[in-house]
């Protein structure tokens, strides 16, 4: 009981003085303590290894450790997927070290997503001092002289996927000693291999296996993962072989109290278009951190960006210095670029109580032996439940209950989570999404594979079968490979690995160079360069701030100078989308849901400068070229009949958008089925899939605007309301995901090819260009792009309601523009005469309703696909030329897609239901960042119709539910079954 009192006391302390009416805590949950389940050391384990582990403090192993270790020892691929600090390292150390001792020629590889984690793991193996093992690292930091030694002598090589790709597989003959006797491959933190990076790693591991086979070995894979859903399935997909899973965590855990926290609305600020805004999660976390430090609680606060971490620590110190200056000394920010020794020092200081509070980015999430803290504060959802529990899991000592506070940021996903505790506390951790069949990933990977060893027809099944065959044909047509009877051969003397960056797929990299010193700070992929390193952009690199002077896309360089201005920048982008091919299409009586390939043309048209207070300084127009991205999208269309229905719309209650039940209620009336006059009848056209290159492309942005102005298209229907990807990508978010920032393989923007073709050409292009992008990624340390996410840095939008910069691309208002009036127009009237399940929206509201529904859907997709909202974009339009109907698209931000849109299609119903819930449960009157406003909206969040969005979503969900039993969408697609940590 004393335990619970302690956590409750801590929570009481952080809420002290807040009136009950303004209590930010939306939910409190208690998680009980768990006892350890220990077992004996297995007989097969080497006695010296056991003795060494004992000496390092592991007296008796936990059951899950030995279960996994024994499977590996028996030659079975295994993934251990258990909670934070559950001793996963021992599960692979025991079999690997035992076998290395038993067979003095045997070798092993260890792969980690970051250099820092690899260094930590090497240190812990070296500390065991097992004779003859010769463990060594081989990464971007390994001096040239040492590399020869590692190749010649090391038996356990600690490296990362980037070095495996460029440094080991590319010159495998020099590593023949290792490959001949390669007994184990350890893949640590494998849940991080998702999206495009994960797809590359999956193919890289297949390349590794074929090279090992060539030298006569067939290594066993041991994978370690945070708790994830379906770990066996995911690991099998990652390595391309059967893999067993160990998931029952037998390590001890202290009890925890988890509090969900929604920061209060600010009274003296309003946001864009007059929307209410909340206190930033970072500022709130600083205050909570200070209160906990006063209580003597050892606390780690996770903040999403480096700048945010610094501001949070600063905020806490400022509060503490007023109470007791010595307490302020006990709070630190985790600085980027900590060396392993500094991290150890920090761990020790925090564990001993010398330091009481540390504000950190997720850099401290991996490879840190910090557990048993008194409290953890999470400022913002870290993107995945796996990360959430990884961070939360740092709290909790046996015998003493710890506190976890999750502070919501002002966005739809976080808001949804604090109001739906089950989505955090009871939901299984999501499966990591990867798609090794993406042609943009397959093409460069197959080129690398062929360059390593000629590819034979028998091997193609491991590379995706038919998908690989199609890509190989394109590579042959482009003369990248040559087809001979015995297989496919690489044609050049150059090695493709140097130009293929496995951390992304966006063409040749843009180098970010400090003009004064010519120092290369990092690289950004060309797809997001206009948004992140446009002239005037504030660019963060390793915690330091720079301002971009010049962006030369042709030369591939952004020149910057060191400067830490009083503002941050966020780009604004317009986009247009066309359907290239429809892979899946399901009709639900007036609502159609599709999955397919699209081309997104986007243009950064300007940027906003904001002070940390949220005040918008100004908007600066930019004249940058449009970019083209071919990718995957999920979209739904709604017929006019359903959208407009009859003349009765949802009536918003004060402070709430309520259209749900009302919009669902069927009402009779032939009136409702009347076709809308004046709207182009494109139904027949829209019923068939649109193939690549066909006529019927959408009206391009400028063209649409002209058409609207000229009255050629009905007012309001031609504007595309777009939310481009990555325009204000947070540097930390990019880095945290393993680095979308450093890319060099992939599509040629603007090639207009089908994915396979352009993927093939990408390789060709990459072969010609020197891959600057490799520099950042070789280290396993991705470059950091501008930290401009206002939600992360504590900035707030102060609304001016101004028009987007230099565009005019919005719905042509006809007096009914809801954003102009501040509130959606409300129709009243009898319940008769509307289309069953129809939205009851008048035409002028439709663009704003679709736009708002699209924003919220982008915000909520990360709940179902393991992506960040910056990985995806969207476009909504009241009339799309390719579909002939009102359409909302949500698309992947990577060439060829990363599986996110596919996941949205598969989880359509729960995704859109959660989207609706997020909007409805937001207390704002007409839309705010917590529900339908987007931080990256190219249209200045205008028009947005919150009540209309609910009506749209109800219409879609109603139609799917009514007609869906014949299809697959009614089922919640949750194969996710694993428990959280
Ligand atoms: N059986 C055991 N008994 C006691 N302590 C153990 C045992 N196994 C591991 N440990 C200790 O637990 C701590 C965490 O171990 P380890 O870093 O391997 O966990 P992990 O699951 O890899 O953590 P993370 O979640 O950070 O990846 C280490 O200090 C380790 O020495």
UniProtKB/TrEMBL annotation:
CDD domains hit by this protein: DEXHc_Hrq1-like, SF2_C_Hrq
A molecular function GO annotation: 3'-5' DNA helicase activity
UniProt GO BP: interstrand cross-link repair; nucleotide-excision repair
Keywords: ATP-binding, Helicase, Hydrolase, Nucleotide-binding
The keyword ATP-binding belongs to this UniProt entry's keyword annotation: yes
Pfam families per record: DEAD, Helicase_C, MZB, WHD_HRQ1
Domain Helicase C-terminal: 287-440
UniProt cross-references to InterPro entries, sorted A to Z: DEAD/DEAH_box_helicase_dom, Helicase_ATP-bd, Helicase_C-like, Helicase_put_actinobac, HRQ1_WHD, MZB, P-loop_NTPase
Lineage: superkingdom: Bacteria
Signal peptide: none
Stretches with biased composition (Gly residues): 828-840
Keyword Protein biosynthesis in annotation: no
Region named Disordered: 654-699, 727-764, 781-843
Residues annotated as domain Helicase ATP-binding: 69-246
Amino acid composition bias (Low complexity), ranges on this chain: 656-699, 727-747
NCBIfam families from the UniProt entry: DECH_helic
Cross-referenced PANTHER family: ATP-DEPENDENT HELICASE HRQ1
Protein name (Swiss-Prot/TrEMBL): DEAD/DEAH box helicase domain-containing protein
């Amino acid at each position: 009981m004393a335990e619970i009192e302690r956590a409750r006391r801590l929570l009481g302390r952080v809420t002290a003085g807040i009136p009950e009416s303004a209590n930010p805590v939306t939910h409190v949950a208690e998680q009980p303590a768990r006892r350890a389940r220990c077992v004996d050391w297995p007989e097969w384990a080497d006695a010296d290894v056991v003795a060494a582990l004992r000496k390092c403090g592991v007296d008796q192993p936990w059951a899950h450790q030995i279960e996994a270790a024994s499977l590996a020892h028996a030659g079975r691929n295994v993934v251990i997927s258990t909670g934070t600090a559950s001793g996963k390292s021992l599960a692979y150390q025991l079999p690997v070290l035992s076998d290395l001792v038993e067979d003095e020629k045997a070798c092993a590889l260890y792969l980690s997503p970051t250099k820092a984690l690899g260094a930590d793991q090497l240190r812990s193996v070296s500390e065991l001092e097992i004779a003859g093992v010769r463990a060594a690292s081989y990464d971007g930091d390994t001096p040239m002289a040492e590399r020869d030694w590692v190749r010649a002598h090391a038996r356990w090589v600690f490296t990362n996927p980037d070095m495996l790709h460029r440094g080991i597989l590319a010159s495998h003959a020099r590593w023949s000693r290792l490959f001949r006797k390669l007994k184990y491959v350890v893949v640590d933190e494998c849940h991080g291999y998702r999206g495009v990076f994960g797809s590359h790693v999956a193919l890289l591991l297949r390349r590794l296996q074929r090279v090992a086979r060539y030298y006569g070995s067939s290594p066993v894979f041991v994978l370690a993962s945070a708790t994830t859903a379906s770990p066996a399935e995911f690991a099998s997909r990652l390595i391309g072989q059967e893999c067993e899973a160990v998931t029952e965590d037998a390590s001890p855990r202290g009890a925890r109290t988890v509090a969900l926290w929604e920061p209060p609305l600010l009274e003296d600020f309003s946001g864009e278009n007059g929307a209410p805004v909340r206190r930033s999660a970072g500022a709130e976390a600083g205050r909570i951190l200070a209160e906990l430090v006063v209580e003597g609680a050892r606390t780690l606060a996770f903040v999403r960006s480096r700048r945010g971490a610094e501001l949070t620590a600063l905020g806490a110190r400022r509060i503490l210095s007023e109470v007791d200056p010595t307490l302020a000394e006990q709070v630190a920010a985790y600085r980027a670029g900590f060396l392993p020794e500094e991290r150890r020092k920090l761990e020790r200081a925090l564990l001993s109580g010398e330091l009481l509070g540390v504000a950190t980015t997720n850099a401290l999430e991996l490879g840190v032996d910090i557990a048993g803290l008194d409290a953890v504060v999470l400022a913002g959802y870290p993107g995945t439940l796996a990360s959430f529990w990884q961070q939360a899991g740092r709290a909790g000592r046996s015998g003493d209950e710890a506190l976890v506070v999750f502070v919501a940021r002002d966005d739809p996903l976080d808001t949804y989570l604090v109001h739906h505790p089950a989505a955090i506390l009871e939901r299984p951790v999501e499966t990591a999404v990867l798609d090794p069949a993406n042609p943009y990933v397959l093409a460069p990977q197959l080129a690398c594979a062929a360059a390593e060893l000629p590819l034979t027809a028998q091997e193609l099944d491991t590379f995706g079968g038919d998908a690989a065959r199609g890509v190989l044909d394109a590579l042959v047509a482009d003369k990248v490979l040559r087809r001979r009877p015995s297989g496919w051969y690489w044609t050049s003397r150059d090695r493709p690995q140097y130009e293929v960056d496995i951390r992304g797929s966006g063409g040749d990299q843009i180098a970010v160079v400090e003009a004064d010193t010519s120092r290369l700070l990092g690289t950004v992929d060309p797809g997001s360069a206009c948004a992140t390193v446009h002239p005037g952009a504030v660019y963060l690199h390793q915690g330091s701030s720079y301002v971009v002077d010049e962006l030369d896309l042709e030369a591939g360089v952004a020149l910057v100078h060191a400067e830490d201005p009083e503002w941050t920048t966020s780009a604004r982008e317009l986009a247009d989308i066309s359907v290239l091919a429809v892979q899946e299409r399901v009709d639900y009586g007036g609502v159609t849901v599709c999955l397919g390939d699209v081309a997104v043309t986007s243009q950064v048209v300007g940027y906003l400068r904001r002070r940390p207070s949220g005040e918008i300084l100004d908007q600066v127009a930019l004249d940058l070229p449009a970019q083209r991205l071919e990718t995957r999208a999920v979209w739904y269309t709604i017929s006019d009949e359903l959208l407009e229905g009859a003349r009765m719309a949802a009536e918003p209650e004060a402070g709430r958008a309520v259209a749900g039940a009302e919009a669902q209620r069927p009402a009779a009336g032939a009136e409702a089925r009347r076709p809308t006059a004046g709207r182009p009848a494109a139904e027949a056209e829209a019923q068939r899939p649109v193939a690549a290159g066909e006529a019927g492309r959408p009206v391009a942005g400028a063209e649409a605007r002209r058409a609207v102005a000229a009255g050629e298209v009905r007012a309001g229907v031609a504007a595309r309301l777009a939310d481009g990807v990555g325009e204000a990508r947070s540097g930390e978010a990019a880095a945290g995901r393993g680095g979308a920032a450093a890319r060099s393989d992939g599509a040629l923007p603007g090639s207009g090819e089908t994915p396979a073709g352009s993927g093939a050409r990408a390789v060709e292009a990459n072969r010609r260009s020197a891959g600057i992008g490799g520099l950042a990624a070789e280290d396993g340390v991705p470059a950091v792009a501008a930290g401009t996410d206002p939600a992360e840095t504590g900035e707030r939008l102060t609304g001016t309601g101004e028009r987007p910069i230099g565009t005019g691309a919005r719905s042509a208002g006809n007096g009914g523009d809801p954003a102009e009036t501040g509130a959606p127009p409300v129709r009243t009237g009898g319940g008769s005469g509307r289309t069953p399940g129809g939205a009851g929206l008048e035409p002028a509201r439709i663009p704003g309703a679709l736009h708002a529904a699209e924003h919220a859907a982008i915000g909520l997709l990360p709940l179902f696909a393991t992506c960040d909202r910056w990985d995806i974009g969207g476009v909504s339009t009241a009339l799309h030329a390719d579909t002939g109907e009102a359409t909302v698209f949500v698309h992947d931000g990577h060439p060829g897609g990363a599986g996110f849109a596919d996941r949205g299609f598969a989880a359509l119903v729960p995704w859109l239901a959660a989207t609706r819930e997020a909007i409805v449960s937001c207390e704002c009157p007409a839309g705010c960042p917590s529900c339908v406003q987007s931080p990256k909206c190219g249209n200045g969040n205008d028009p947005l119709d919150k009540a209309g969005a609910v009506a749209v979503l109800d219409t879609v969900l109603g139609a799917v539910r009514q007609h869906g039993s014949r299809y697959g969408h009614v089922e919640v697609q949750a194969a996710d079954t694993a428990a959280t940590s």
